[in-house]
């Protein structure tokens, strides 16, 4: 014998919803401070840059030969781990 229909019981149950597969084209690589990176068009004769920090889609990098106080701000999407 079947149970009588109870609208409150079905209302409290959650239905699973199938979502379409989304392409994540804007996921950025994790570049922790102290890691070394290259540019998207990095010359072969230039050593990798050292990451100082990244925030808001921008990273501050430096060359070790530049000294501590010279930094370059670069878009995060232009960098990849060396």
List keywords for this structure.
5 strands; 82 residues; five-stranded antiparallel beta sheet; SH3 type barrels; mainly beta; 1 helix
SSE layout:
Layout: H1 7-12, E1 36-39, E2 49-55, E3 58-62, E4 72-75, E5 79-81
Antiparallel strand pairs: 1-2, 1-5, 2-3, 3-4
Please tell me about this protein's structure.
The protein has one helix spanning 7-12, and strands at 36-39, 49-55, 58-62, 72-75, 79-81. It is mostly beta strands and 82 residues long. The protein has a single domain (7-81), classed as SH3 type barrels, CATH 2.30.30. The chain has a five-stranded antiparallel sheet with strand order 4-3-2-1-5, with no helix packed on it. It is elongated, with a radius of gyration of 25 Å. The mean pLDDT is 83.
The global form is elongated
Physical arrangement of strands within the biggest beta sheet:
4-3-2-1-5
List segments where confidence is low: pLDDT < 50 over at least 5 consecutive residues. Answer: none
**Beta-strand percentage range:** 25-35%
Q: Structural class, from helix and strand content?
A: mainly beta
Concise account of the structure shown:
This protein is mostly beta strands.
């Amino acid at each position: 014998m079947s149970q009588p229909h109870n609208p409150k019981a079905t209302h409290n149950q959650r239905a699973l919803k199938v979502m379409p597969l989304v392409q994540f084209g804007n996921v950025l690589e994790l570049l922790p401070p102290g890691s070394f990176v290259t540019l998207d068009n990095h010359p072969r004769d230039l050593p990798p840059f050292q990451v100082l920090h990244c925030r808001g889609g921008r990273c501050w990098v430096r060359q070790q030969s530049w000294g501590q106080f010279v930094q370059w701000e670069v878009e995060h999407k232009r960098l990849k781990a060396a």
